[in-house]
Design goal:
The protein has 361 residues and is an alpha/beta fold. The chain folds into two domains: 229 residues, 3-Layer(aba) Sandwich (Aspartate Aminotransferase, domain 2), CATH 3.40.640; 114 residues, Aspartate Aminotransferase, domain 1 (Alpha-Beta Complex). Helices cover 37% and strands 15% of the residues. The chain contains twelve helices and 13 strands. A hairpin with a 2-residue loop joins β6 and β7. α3 runs parallel beside α8. The longest helix has 18 residues. The two termini are 17 Å apart. The mean pLDDT is 98. Bound molecules: pyridoxal-5'-phosphate. The site of pyridoxal-5'-phosphate has 15 residues, from α4 and α5.
């Protein structure tokens, strides 16, 4: 069986280091807002190239905090790709803002910058890009629009830790960026975790206070805040794994290249990248007409796959008000996409088997 993602195998590579660091934390007896968070946030900011980083409880909280701290709420519109994981859109709604959906580019699966301007209104406050499947959005046109209309730009970098656009990493391509460290992400912890990166000192201070019950110092509450923390054990695990993120991403790139060079089947559409550095291959998606039959065929040949994602946000029960709207490119992607196994611990045998089975379809 070729597993989609063997998390245990991924983490076992660092088990000794993780165990000894956890032991130190347990010995110290300090579980939240301590030294491990200080170390990890400093190292993660340095990795992304930003001035600041803050660990939070999960990726959805990171997105929520960015919007809340920016002061956006009821009546404000935020532009977002129609084909994202629902968290990006939920964070906008949960702040009372209106998500304005924009279709993706069928070649990159990222938001199509040429379709954004027609959606800008006097109520538009920000553009939230998503570096989907691990590929950094080509930001230049988005930066130009933001400048022209005086909008903020935010990133949902939950799938693209380490990807590079214009010599800068994701997390450093906008006013503020949200990361998730959900176990299956390219940088994943052993539970829930997330982070926010930014170069804006004022915004950072506000985010930090809001994440801590709105408090800028103990028992002094200046905002109606929330509680969103990364615990010390997760911060330590992430700090250990961060050192291997670039080499893990490189392995993903090599597998992706092997797939792209060796999968030869005219029923299968392979993913594309505009620049090898821009993509960290969080998932390796292919498209095919009879997707469900293809998935069944792969399963019968011992290859585990996942669909990212079967139903677009505008067709979900949570957004009944959008169910009759039509986003044809988004729908086409959701109807045809399927993710093949890719991970830094796959063996050459497993990689070859995937190619062989896909080519035999
Ligand atoms: C995983 C993910 C999130 C949410 O992260 P959680 O840590 O699960 O809250 C948000 N956006 C995208 C694009 C994701 O893939």
């Amino acid at each position: 069986m070729v597993n989609f993602l063997d998390l245990k195998k991924i983490n076992n590579r660092f088990l000794d280091e993780i165990n000894s660091r956890i032991e130190k934390i347990l010995d110290k007896g300090w579980y939240l807002q301590g030294e491990e968070n200080e170390i990890f946030s400093k190292n993660f900011a340095e990795f992304c190239g930003t001035k600041y980083a803050l660990g939070v409880a999960n990726g959805l909280d990171a997105l929520n905090l960015i919007i809340k701290a920016s002061g956006f709420g009821v009546g404000d519109e935020i532009i977002v790709p129609a084909n994202t994981y629902i968290a990006t859109i939920l964070a906008i709604s949960q702040n009372g803002c209106t998500p304005v959906l924009v279709e993706p580019d069928i070649n990159t699966y990222n938001i199509n910058p040429d379709l954004i301007e027609e959606k800008i209104t006097p109520k538009t406050k920000a553009i939230m890009v998503v570096h989907l499947y691990g590929q950094a959005v080509q930001m230049q046109k988005i930066w130009d629009l933001a400048k022209k209309y005086n909008l903020k730009v935010f990133e949902d970098s939950a799938q693209a830790h380490g990807a590079i656009y214009n010599n800068k990493r994701t997390g450093n391509l906008s006013d503020a960026s949200a990361f998730s460290f959900y176990p299956g992400k390219n940088l994943g912890c052993m539970g829930d975790g997330g982070a926010i990166t930014t170069n804006d000192e004022e915004l950072f201070k506000k985010i930090k206070a809001i994440a801590n019950y709105g408090s800028d110092r103990k028992y002094h509450h200046i905002y109606k805040g929330v509680n969103s923390r990364l615990d010390e054990i997760q911060a330590a695990i992430l700090d250990i794994k961060l050192k291997h993120l670039d080499s893990d991403n490189q392995k993903r790139r090599e597998i992706s290249k092997f797939y792209r060079e060796n999968i030869k089947n005219n029923k299968i559409i392979l993913p594309k990248t505009y620049d090898e550095k821009a993509h960290v291959w969080h998932v390796f998606t292919v498209r095919t007409k009879n997707r469900d039959a293809f998935q069944e065929y792969l399963k019968n040949n011992d290859i585990q796959t996942i669909i990212h994602y079967p139903t677009p946000p505008h067709k979900q029960g949570a957004y009944k008000e959008w169910n009759n709207l039509s986003y044809p490119i988004t729908e086409e992607i959701h109807n045809t996409i399927i993710s093949l196994p890719i991970s830094p611990v796959m063996t050459m045998d497993e990689i070859s088997k995937v190619v062989e089975v896909v080519n035999g379809y």
